[in-house]
Structure formats: structure tokens, C-alpha cells
């Protein structure tokens, strides 16, 4: 069977690329340990149907109590994503604060992309996504939903304010 030289080269290049990508995936998951986000025990998983119920989980607590100081300039915040908002949608912390974000969804898959940081998580119903960041530069940081979640997707955002 005759295959044009350039076509053959492209076939070979595609096959080589497939192996290169496979190596990248294996290295990122097994060597760099990049996995589906897992919260520390005992948080792990939640029931999305009851997660917003008062008394059941931290995401059921009043919105103004979701930001908690856990040490000197150390905070944790429990953010609930739902179509099409975050609760709380506004978080204020002092400069230099270290914040651990615990985020989950009670309906569909959302995103949590905190601009100006490397925080970019998928928010999956039933699962807790968590990352920690330190904020040394005062200002306003928007967090936005970057997973299409319905007709109000573009209105789903919040603000983290770092005070001087
Ligand atoms: Cu939530 Cu897009």
C-alpha cells in the first residue's frame, strides 16, 4: 500500500505524540501526585442533598460564620457553590493571611478559579475541594465559576478582599 511520505510522517508524529502525552499523564498522576482533589480526613465527602442544611455540615452554618480564624492570621472558609452564586460571595481577610478554602456544590458541577492565585478547582457535588493560599498583596481578588453550569453561569462570581 502506498502512503505519501508527508502523510506517513504525520501518522508517525501522531503516534509519537500519543506516547508523549501518556508519559505526561503518568508522571503527573504518579510522580507529581496530581489527583482528583481530596479533602483531609475526616471531611472527604458530603451529601449534596443535605450539605446546606443547618447543623449537618459547615456549609449549613450561617454565611457570616463560614470564615473562621484558626490561628494567628490563619483562616479557613467554607464556600458553597450553587446555581448561580457562591455563599459567601464576599470574604475579607487581612494582609498576609493564609486561607484554606473548602468548597463544595449542592447541585451541579461548578468551578472555583481565584484570580491572581494558582487556585483553580472543579467543584463537584458530594466532594470537598480544598486548597490553601497566602495573600501578601492587598486588593480585590475575584473568584469565578469556570465550568459552564447553566444559563446564569456568567453571573457566578465572588470577591476576596485582602485589607492592607
Ligand atoms: Cu457555576 Cu458556571
Description:
- With 164 residues, the protein is α+β, with helices and mostly antiparallel strands.
- The protein folds into two domains: 1-34; 44-163, Immunoglobulin-like.
- The protein contains one helix and ten strands, in the order H-E-E-E-E-E-E-E-E-E-E.
- The strands form two sheets. Strands 1, 2, 3, 5 and 8 form a five-stranded mixed β-sheet that branches. A five-stranded mixed β-sheet has the order 4-10-9-6-7, with no helix packed on it.
- Strand 1 and strand 2 (74-82) form a beta hairpin.
- The longest helix is centred in the N-terminal third of the chain and has 27 residues, at 5-31.
- The protein is elongated.
- The relative contact order is 0.16.
- The model has no long low-confidence stretch (mean pLDDT 91).
- The site of dinuclear copper ion has 8 residues, from loops.
Amino acid at each position: 500500500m502506498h502512503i505519501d511520505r508527508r502523510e506517513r510522517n504525520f501518522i508517525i508524529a501522531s503516534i509519537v505524540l500519543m506516547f508523549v502525552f501518556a508519559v505526561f499523564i503518568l508522571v503527573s498522576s504518579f510522580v507529581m501526585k496530581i489527583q482528583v482533589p481530596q479533602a483531609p480526613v475526616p471531611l472527604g465527602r458530603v451529601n449534596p442533598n443535605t450539605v446546606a442544611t443547618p447543623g449537618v455540615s459547615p456549609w449549613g452554618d450561617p454565611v457570616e460564620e463560614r470564615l473562621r480564624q484558626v490561628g494567628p492570621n490563619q483562616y479557613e472558609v467554607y464556600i458553597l457553590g450553587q446555581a448561580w452564586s457562591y455563599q459567601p460571595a464576599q470574604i475579607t481577610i487581612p494582609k498576609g493571611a493564609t486561607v484554606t478554602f473548602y468548597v463544595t456544590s449542592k447541585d451541579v458541577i461548578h468551578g472555583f478559579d481565584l484570580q491572581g492565585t494558582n487556585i483553580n478547582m472543579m467543584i463537584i457535588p458530594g466532594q470537598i475541594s480544598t486548597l490553601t493560599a497566602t495573600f501578601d498583596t492587598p486588593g480585590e481578588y475575584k473568584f469565578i465559576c469556570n465550568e459552564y453550569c447553566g444559563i446564569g453561569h456568567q453571573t457566578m462570581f465572588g470577591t476576596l478582599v485582602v485589607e492592607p
